[in-house]
Amino acid sequence: MRTGAAWAGKGGRIVLSLGILAFAASCQRAAMEPPAGPAPSAAESSGSGVLAGEGIVPGIHPLPAPLLPAKLEMGELDPILHASIAHDPLLRERAAFWADFWTTRSRPYFERYLERMGQYQHLVDRELAERGLPSSLRYLPIVESGYHHGVTSRAGASGLWQLMPATARGLGLLVDGVVDDRHDPVGSTSAALDYLEELHAQFGSWPLALSAYNAGPSRVARLLEQHVHEENLAPDERYLRIRSHLPAETREFVPRFFAAAIVASDPERYGLPPVDVSREFVFDEVTVPDATSLDVVARAAGVEEEDIVALNAHYTRGFTPAGHERVVRVPPGTAPTFEVNFAQIPPDERITFVEHVVAQGETLTHIARRYGVSVAELTGANGGLDPRRLQIGQRLVVSVAGNGTSGGSTAGSVAPGRSVSGVAAAPNGNGSSRGGSRHHVVASGDNLWTIARRNGVSVSDLQRWNGLSAGQVLQPGQELSVGGGARLHSVRSGETWSGIASRYGVATSELARANGRTIRDVIRVGEELLIP
After folding, report:
1. What is this structure's pTM?
2. Mean pLDDT of 489-514
3. Tell me, what's the pLDDT at 15?
């Protein structure tokens, strides 16, 4: 088990100089038109350096130069923000444009960027400090993704750092139908900084490295070969030499980066809220040996499934890949609980749904029969899939909870001879009812996990109700309390997991878990659900 936590670095704020350099009309240069962004109502999902909502009004008059950062808290000059190009009039002009844009028309968007940045800033700062990289690179994800770990661009770049699939794989990240490590803030940050280090080593200039990060190193190298012939020309001067030949988006990329650094380093100066680092990305790490559903991880850790999903967004299908040992993150302090509980889960109950890749000649009926589920369950678990549009290679989620393939029981049923309550009686009479509470008589082979799952409660609740310690061995014939009186709800037409959960004041994930199901499963009219 390893413990991960965001690192609290020092040089968090860039101190801004007090002087403002204004341009005389005779010295103004024609500003390059930035690429037009989508309308403000679009989702924040364009990436690749142009976030949705940042629509630009063509022909706007150039603004005065922005305040340029002077130095970091520790007194050092940032090698990017204080490079020679920082005095270039056109760069300052465009940086001023973006600083003004983000603090006026796009202020609500930039406030969200800062809010998300607070969650990951310490993580990024730690990596930068360990590598000795410029601390201003902490602002690059603002330009790339607005610090959104799940955003995907129209071109296919994804994650905080907007890596393309081929680039990500080349950096050692896994990108397939089950895992997309670009959505992992930890792994993607390490990979992105590897890439930036490589680009800086290749071009010897941070402006060139940033341009290559956006447009691709091959394009930048080709432009340098075409337009720079002086061998002794300084690296940053090489950037200025090819700038006008770069794609429009890439021409704006470095000014946008400067503007993001200027504003985000001291947001209160611009009337923006300070970066709140109290919600930093912290976690414990545990290892699962094979395919494991995130809802199973949640139950073993004694937390909500939503908590596990939030820490493991790179498991895009809700489970870890089969045949591979993988690290999974759990909330801080829950790793010991997970280790004890997970060891009690039978291997065939560690996955509540699997992924099936459609082969030639297969139909939904064939697939449903193979996994012992109904066609309705299969289509429902895949967003109302149209059987007529089934394609070879298409990936389908197949629920295995409660269908016999994973050892689960049907929703709402009580295992014979195991548990009883004032509502659902045990057919063989091995359980007992006391004033509406439920009890369970331990049988050979029972453990806390199987008992908890069968009765729709958590392992931690079982331990608390019965004064049991972690890892305590149960004895056949031992009687355990498994909670208060049960309630059953008969599903009516039009009802959903969330609607039923809201009616009874319980969490949707708890309702599904109490019935050995997940919220992806289909519920049928007339089906009886146990209300936890």
Report:
1. 0.67
2. 78
3. 37
Bridge partner residues of 433 (DSSP) = 438
The DSSP line for 396-440 is: EEEE-TTSSSSS---TT---TTTEE-SSS--TTS-S-EETTEEEE
DSSP letter string, 501-517? HHHHT--HHHHHHHTT-
Give the number of C-alpha atoms closer than 13 A to the C-alpha of residue 318, restricted to the C-beta side: 19
Which residue matches tokens 């895992």?
Answer: 179
At 178-201, the pLDDT tens digits run: 899 999 999 999 999 999 999 999
Altogether, the residues listed in the chain come to a count of: 532
Phi, psi of 433 (to 5 degrees): -125, 130
Of 178-192, 237-251, 334-348, 383-397, where does mean pLDDT reach its minimum? 383-397
Query: Comparing C-alpha atoms, which of 355, 295, 279, 290 is closest to residue 330?
Result: 295
Q: Kindly state the tokens that stand for 396.
A: 């389908």
Q: Name the DSSP letter for residue 152.
A: B
Residue 354: strand pairing partners: 398
Question: Using one digit for the tens of pLDDT, what is the confidence trace for 212-259?
Answer: 999 999 999 999 999 999 989 999 999 999 999 999 999 999 999 999
Taking the C-alpha atoms of residue 464 and residue 467, their distance in angstroms, rounded to an integer, is 5
Under a CB-based contact definition with an 8 Å cutoff, are residues 48 and 37 in contact? no
CA-to-CA dists, residue 220 to 207, 247, 257, 497, angstroms: 11, 10, 18, 52
Q: Give the up-direction half-sphere exposure of residue 447: CA atoms within 13 A in the CB hemisphere.
A: 14
What percent of the chain has a predicted confidence (pLDDT) above 70? 75
State both tokens at 298.
């949640």
pLDDT band at 440 (very low <50, low <70, confident <90, very high): confident
Task: Tell me 17's DSSP state.
Answer: P
Q: Which residue has the higher pLDDT, 218 or 28?
A: 218
Residue 449 vs residues 11, 337, 434, 458, 499: alpha-carbon distances, Å: 47, 12, 23, 8, 28
Number of H helices, E strands in the chain: 18, 13
Other beta carbons within 10 Å of 275: 19
Q: Identify the CA nearest to 481 among candidates 444, 435, 512, 517.
A: 435
Backbone angles phi, psi at 131, to 5 degrees: -95, -10
Separation CA 331–CA 337 (nearest Å): 11
What burial class does residue 46 get, using C-beta atoms within 10 Å of its C-beta: 0-12 exposed, 13-18 middle, 19+ buried?
buried
Provide the H-helix boundaries in 12-106: 89-103
- Of 130, 124, 123, 195, which is closest to residue 157 (Cα–Cα)? 195
User: Number of C-alpha atoms within 13 angstroms, CB side, residue 205?
Assistant: 24
**Top-confidence residue, 457 or 236:** 236
Over residues 58-76, the pLDDT tens digits come to: 333 333 334 444 443 334 6
Average pLDDT over the chain reads 77
Is the distance from CB of 199 to CB of 212 less than 8 angstroms? yes
Phi, psi torsion values for 17, nearest 5 degrees: -70, 165
Which among 69, 126, 442 has a CA at the least distance from the CA of 280? 126
Q: For residues 434 and 371, what is the distance between their CA atoms, to the nearest angstrom?
A: 39
